[in-house]
Write a structure and sequence with these properties.
Length: about 90
């Protein structure tokens, strides 16, 4: 099941996705390997946050951005609770 996602101001939206469809998709996540924060940060449009970030190698900058802004295990836990699992 593919869902189209948009982001705006740090918020992820799923246009045209009903709550039931989101719960169904969330229920399919267990057992799947979760992406790393660094892999997810590869799709971030701009990881230059601090004044001298342009001097930091991209891979290290993505790692730092992911550590600062992403919580992959927490997101997986939240999606599990959305799907009705504890």
């Amino acid at each position: 099941m593919n869902l189209r996602a948009d982001t705006f101001g740090g918020v992820i939206t799923l246009p045209g996705c009903s709550a039931a469809r989101l719960r169904e998709a969330a229920g399919r996540i267990p057992g799947r390997a979760l992406p790393s924060g660094e892999d997810l940060a590869a799709d971030a449009p701009d990881t230059e946050i601090e004044k001298f970030d342009y001097l930091v190698p991209e891979r290290l900058r993505r790692r730092g951005w992911a550590a600062r802004y992403l919580d992959v295990p927490g997101a997986a836990e939240w999606l599990g609770s959305l799907a009705g699992r504890k």
